[in-house]
Amino acid sequence: MAKKKDSKKWYAAYTRSRSEKKAASELSFLGIDHYLPLIKKLKQWSDRKKWVEEPLFRSYIFVHIEQSEYYEALKNPYIVKYVSFEGKAVPIPEEQIEAIKIYLGEQEPVDINEIELKKGQKVEVISGSLSGLQGELIEIKGKNKLKVRIEAVGKSVVIQVPKSKLRPL
Known about the structure:
Elements: E1 9-15, H1 20-30, E2 34-35, E3 38-44, E4 49-55, E5 60-65, H2 70-74, E6 79-82, E7 84-85, E8 88-89, E9 91-92, H3 94-103, E10 122-125, E11 134-141, E12 145-152, E13 155-162, E14 166-168
Antiparallel strand pairs: 1-5, 1-6, 1-9, 2-5, 3-4, 7-8, 10-11, 10-14, 11-12, 12-13
């Protein structure tokens, strides 16, 4: 019997304090698919400045597992528990993980310079807190800023969105 293609699901796991990278390393060693979103920050000490990679979400890592791997991931000494609701781990939609990757620039949906957007065109927000909203492009402000009219409850709301967070419909 063939495995279902979508049998793997994403879950957020809570890690020990400042142990996100160690948890990721251990998951790699165990052969468990995972994702630790990192951002670069410029840190300053009294004698120097240095770029360091820090987790986007402190004390969290995402694991992409099948039900059979559920407890295997918890054997990781740096993982405390899964983020759960009423005692059950809550799966995270694949689209949200993809949105994080797009936001961090680890993955581009398409080359944003190749996208031709024109006034009056229908567009959709593909990442950020407004992800999934659709509207009409009403103004192009420079290379990367666009104004979009969103129709909600019979009212127009105008938002300013970077070009990289939009896709044409």
